[in-house]
Design goal:
CATH superfamily of the largest domain in chain A: Jelly Rolls
CATH class of the largest domain in chain A: Mainly Beta
Pfam family, one (chains A, B): HTH_Crp_2
Organism (chains A, B): Palleronia sediminis
Number of strands of chain A: 12
Distance between the termini of chain A: 47 Å
Structural class of chain A: alpha+beta
CATH architecture of the largest domain in chain A: Sandwich
Number of helices of chain A: 7
CATH topology of the largest domain in chain A: Jelly Rolls
Oligomer: homodimer
Mean pLDDT of chain A: 95
InterPro entries (chains A, B): cNMP-bd_dom, cNMP-bd_dom_sf, Env_Response_Regulators, HTH_CRP, RmlC-like_jellyroll, WH-like_DNA-bd_sf, WH_DNA-bd_sf
Low-confidence stretches of chain A: none
GO cellular component, one term (chains A, B): cytosol
Largest interface: A-B, 46 and 46 residues
Helix content of chain A: 25-40%
GO molecular function (chains A, B): DNA binding; DNA-binding transcription factor activity
Largest sheet of chain A: 5 strands, antiparallel
Radius of gyration of chain A: 19 Å
Strand content of chain A: 15-25%
Chain lengths: ~250, ~250
DNA sequence: CGTGACATTGATGCCTTTCAAGTAGGGTGG
DNA sequence: CCACCCTACTTGAAAGGCATCAATGTCACG
């Protein structure tokens, strides 16, 4: 069950320089320290349920969660993969728009909704950071629309791996990945398929085929070695500059 | 060719209460009046080109534009349909992330990029409004991901018509559409297909089939009568409360 | 060592794409 | 004013990719 977690100091926080608090100075941080609390969720637990009250604004500190919507007949589409520093909720809204589920054990740093609304209103450094992050998320969502709308199953799987590897590298302060890289999948084939708009079977078959083609090597079912990141990115529909093909 | 257009007063502006300026008071508006300029684009003209410099932050005043990305082999996905009050550009970025093309004759109200960056920094009412709009756009982009990833061709077409009708109603200050409604398509079958992640042929076939089923009636190729908005929304995967199905 | 969740593999069918041809509407020039 | 033409749209036939249904395999855990 979801549990409160002991507070850690913002100074030691792993997402200190990437989350909504990234631009805050010492004084502002003190105000956040006073208002924040931590909570941990086990893999599979819901952090939010679409349509229901969302009492807190949360930032992922560690772990991984998916944001998704499920249609009446069971079809499900993940609309975002939440990694450390990503946020859940929005100012001025009391209801969750999507289901959010922990994919692995996850810790969040959170603020009561009304408290956070006040922080956004009174702390320009939070407001501007939130705007930047939201604009980034918007670009990411739009980029993903290209994947969902126009790419083949194989391209989708490659694009997913590429984006996962890129985000990992960015989060650890590394530059653009290159050459031989490893990637651990924080999610099941089902969660992956929901993200890609594919069935589990199609996803699995594409992975198998990509192994046969030497694009990826299985370390285990949830971890791959990628002999050539560039080759993978090429399949994902990108030129070798790291951007989408002109 | 793109042309400068005579300025109109913010007081008479059709998007005064919906655009980034919506929350501005009289004094702030005066600053905007001084900095703004208008420009008009004929249908088919580019407002922005992906990867190239974007010198201005623009708001659509009238008309309609599409934001899209084209892959090397010609596959194209529209990532956003821009209607009056929607904006193009983002603070602090000098390069366009997507292609933006006018679908019909379009007028924009715009600010030089650096001027706008200053306005966002110094005018809280603009910053907060921009945040709200960006969060709304993010939700819309995520909602559309469900359509692209999990819906059938027919559902996609229905969802598109529903969203178009809803946006029209919202822009003209009406509530939720109901019963017998008409809708004028501001775009070609091709642009529509790019938005839906379908081919022109599939889109056309679905429209034909929906006519046969009595869901829509052709006024002409670019305008339909919808005998029952509710019936259309149901096909688009929504319950009759206007929200996505639980 | 049995059990259950997760993943892979196989066979088949269907929806969408692809390739191709035909139709309709709008504008132009004779 | 009408024939012509260009573009946009529609319709048809066939192919292909992904989904569906079904079974088998694998690993962790009790």
């Amino acid at each position: 069950m979801a549990q409160s977690s002991p507070n850690i100091s913002c100074g030691n926080c792993p997402i200190r320089h990437n989350a909504v608090c990234a631009e805050c100075d010492k004084d502002e941080l003190a105000a956040l320290e006073a208002a924040k609390s931590y909570r941990s969720f086990a893999a599979g637990e819901p952090l939010a349920v679409s349509g229901e009250a969302l009492t807190h604004f949360s930032s992922i500190v560690s772990g991984c969660a998916s944001m998704s919507r499920t249609l009446e007949d069971g079809r499900r589409q993940t609309v975002g993969l939440l990694l450390p520093s990503d946020f859940i909720g929005r100012p001025g809204r009391a209801t969750a728009a999507y289901d959010v589920v922990a994919l692995s054990d996850t810790v969040v740093c959170r603020f009561e909704r009304r408290t956070f609304d006040g922080l956004v209103r009174d702390t320009p450094h939070i407001a501007t950071r939130l705007l930047t992050m939201t604009l980034d998320e918007l670009d990411a969502a739009r980029d993903w629309a290209v994947v969902l709308g126009r790419m083949t199953a194989r391209e989708k799987v490659a694009a997913f791996l590429v984006s996962l590897i890129r985000r990992r590298a960015a989060a650890t302060g590394q530059g653009e990945p290159a050459g031989d890289v490893a990637v651990a999948l924080p999610l099941s084939r089902e969660a992956m398929s929901d993200h890609l708009g594919l069935t589990i079977e199609t996803t699995s078959r594409q992975i198998t085929a990509m192994k046969k083609d030497g694009l990826i090597q299985a370390i285990n079912t949830r971890a791959f070695r990628i002999p050539s990141f560039e080759a993978l990115a090429l399949i994902a529909g990108e030129d070798d500059d790291g951007g989408p093909i002109a």
